[in-house]
Amino acid sequence: MLKVENLSVILDGQRIIKDVSFELKKEEVLAIVGPNGAGKSVLLKTLLGLFPTAGGKIEWGKDVTCGYLPQRFHIDHYLPMTVKEFLKLKPNPKYALERVLELVEINGHWLNKNLATFSSGQLQKILLAWAIIDQPQVLLFDEPTENVDVVAQESIYDLLHHLQDTLGIAIVLISHDLSIVYHYANQVLCLNHAMVCYGEPQEVLTTATLSELYGDHAFFHHHHFDERHDHHHE
User: At the N or C end, where does the chain have fewer CB atoms within 10 A?
Assistant: First the structure.
């Protein structure tokens, strides 16, 4: 679906990403992890063509289409727009409104409600409907659960997993929650401007790698998410 070789990105004279390489295969989940300011969001936007490359190659498969969910999406509470009106703004929808709502487990009664009336978790589902309504083969998510509570987080990730199984899509997601990476990702890319690690989470997310990536508190986080992961599968 996607092959990236030795990618570098320079913005405002500063090298944000240096020599990053990875692949995304059909129906695969690739997680991107790293500290704040490491270049993760820049990488996603560069894959979408929103930022220029300063070196290397980005090769998308033939006719591959993408959906994108940004890190932040603020709704003006004075904006008089319903869910139906919002979704109808998307050009070239492939799914009927009822079908896309069913896919993201949204109640049909939501269609005529104002966007500003929804919680952050509900809004994420609406944005997910926006992202898949034109049947993309790859979904790119920039921390899809950053501003929602823990219950809503689990619901969103379970929904992503369901969509992956149902629609056969590939997913690239940025996440700060390493337990999520362990549970959902086939591959993980550790990024701190340069590539610190890349491979299967169970193999490459070592204490040494996490220390290099996050610094002094890495061992605690590593131990913590291992326990959560083990508990989840008891």
Answer: C
CA–CA dist 118, 111 (Å, integer)? 12
Q: At what angle do helices 150-167 and 120-132 cross, to 10 degrees?
A: 20
* Alpha carbons 16 and 40: distance in angstroms, whole number: 9
- Amino acid making up residue 75: I
Query: For residue 144, what pLDDT band results from cuts at 50, 70 and 90?
Result: low
What residues contact 92, with CB distance under 8 A and at least 6 apart? Answer: 134
Pick the range with the lowest mean pLDDT from 69-73, 114-118, 210-214, 218-222.
218-222
Strand partners, 141: 69, 173
Letter string b/e over residues 192-224, b meaning 16 or more CB atoms within 10 A of that residue's CB:
bbebbbbeebeebbeeebbeebbeeebeebbee
Within 13 Å and on the Cβ side, how many CA atoms surround 156? 26
Tell me 74's DSSP state: P
| Whole-structure pTM value | 0.84
Positive or negative, the CA dihedral 174, 179, 183, 189 is positive
